[in-house]
């Protein structure tokens, strides 16, 4: 069993904020994998479902960001879930929009939601860090994360959350090995699909397609002069 937590602030005035990308991602995951309808439990919005055959509980704390730990502690205590089986999705200003990192443990790095969770259950949980970009100066960080994504950014955010939701089965598998590379690669490929190169044109010789190129003939033999 896993507890999946998306961080954000409650209420319509915060709904499109950069700080709420954790809420957005968990909503996308719940929708993509057919979770139950949201219920009010554990000081948050709570849903249940399965991903790749594993029971997953989804929680969006409604305590405001700075007190997120209270909701996480209540849910994890009730279901007896260890921190190692808790995944917290949150905004990360040190990554540009569309970039993502996963790690277990570590410091809060100034994130009040993580600081609250650290204080409630300790730091030994998984963090999925979704990039929202940096404003360029520390004094502008608070205003930046509490501002809405721009009209140009919103389609990217929607695709970003969809990519995370679609790759969740890989994340659950990868975390068993503590190597989230499969998840990270799938998210990256979804956001940045490889460009298909057009096939090489066949040369025409004597009115017929020979298939030879500059390095050899159609039988793969080297050309000589």
Features:
20% strand; single chain; Rossmann fold; alpha/beta; disordered C terminus; 225 residues
Please state roughly what percent of the residues sit in beta strands, choosing from under 5%, 5-15%, 15-25%, 25-35%, 35-45% or over 45%.
15-25%
Q: Which spans have pLDDT < 50 for at least 5 consecutive residues?
A: 212-225
Following the backbone from N to C, one meets helices and strands in this order, namely EHEEEHEEHEHHHHEE
* CATH topology category name: Rossmann fold
CATH-level-2 architecture: 3-Layer(aba) Sandwich
Radius of gyration: 23 Å
| Intertermini distance | 69 Å
Give the overall average pLDDT: 90
Q: What kind of sheet is the major sheet?
A: 7 strands, mixed
Secondary structure layout:
Layout: E1 2-6, H1 21-32, E2 39-41, E3 44-51, E4 54-61, H2 68-79, E5 86-92, E6 100-104, H3 112-121, E7 126-131, H4 141-145, H5 154-166, H6 168-177, H7 181-191, E8 204-205, E9 208-209
Parallel strand pairs: 1-4, 1-5, 5-7
Antiparallel strand pairs: 2-3, 3-4, 6-7, 8-9
Outline of the structure:
By secondary structure, the chain is of the alpha/beta class. It has seven helices and nine strands.
């Amino acid at each position: 069993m896993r507890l999946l937590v998306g961080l954000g602030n409650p209420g319509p005035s915060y709904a499109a904020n950069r700080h709420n990308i954790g809420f957005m991602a968990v909503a996308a995951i719940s929708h993509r994998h057919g979770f139950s309808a949201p219920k009010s439990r554990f000081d948050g919005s709570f849903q249940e479902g399965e991903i790749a055959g594993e029971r997953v509980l989804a929680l969006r704390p409604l305590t405001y960001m700075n007190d997120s730990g209270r909701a996480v502690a209540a849910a994890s205590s009730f279901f007896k879930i260890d921190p190692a089986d808790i995944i917290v999705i949150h905004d990360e200003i040190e990554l540009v929009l569309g970039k993502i990192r996963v790690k277990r443990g570590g410091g809060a790095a100034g994130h009040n939601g993580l600081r609250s969770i650290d204080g409630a259950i300790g730091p030994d949980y998984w963090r999925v860090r979704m990039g929202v970009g940096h404003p360029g100066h520390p004094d502008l960080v608070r205003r930046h994360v509490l501002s809405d994504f721009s009209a140009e950014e919103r389609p990217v955010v929607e695709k970003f959350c969809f990519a995370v939701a679609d790759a969740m089965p890989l994340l659950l598998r990868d975390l068993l090995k503590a190597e989230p590379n499969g998840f990270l690669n799938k998210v990256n490929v979804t956001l940045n699909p490889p460009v298909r190169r057009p096939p090489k044109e066949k040369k025409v010789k004597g009115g017929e397609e020979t298939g030879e190129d500059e390095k050899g003939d159609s039988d793969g033999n080297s050309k000589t002069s």
